[in-house]
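Entry 14. Ran structure prediction on the chain below.
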Amino acid sequence: MIEGTVHLPHGITARAAIKGDKDFLAKMYKDNRDDLRMADAEKDYIESVIEMQLEAQMGGYGAQFPNAIYLILEKNGSRIGRLTLDVQPVELRLVDLDFIKKASGKGYGSAILLWLMKAAATTRKPLLVPTRRDDFAMGKFLMKYGFIEDESMSDQVFARMSWMPTADEMAGIADIRPRAAAGGAV
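Output, structure tokens:
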């Protein structure tokens, strides 16, 4: 569990999520579901689907990822996003990373991923990042930094991408930089 505040790149801080964050998390989730709002269905039906998915997500993560830590990302004292990280004995898994619309497209996601890669190197564990196949920017970023797809754990919608730090990165004598992926495609 993370205690207090953790300082991340770009002046972002992270703290443990509390019950008082529930409304913020719900609003952010609902605001970021434009993909569903474009569906050819009645508005009330789409909103009910979004609500059901939100409830499933908030209840399901705890059962599916019992070792997960739930963080609120802040910048200048304002909440801008959330990070859910599953910490396993043999791996770190990014479960969820999301930002409010105002904070999107500013490079924060890339900075958080690099921070997670450093954490993986420090703990000598691989970092797993399931990514939607239609999220081309994320796929490109992951491939640039040497993530490879574990096709046995992937499906039609999600590619399960993994990154293993090098010996020098784990020893702290090499910076994490772009490198060619060993194989696999998103």
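The radius of gyration is 17 Å. Will compare against last week's run tomorrow.
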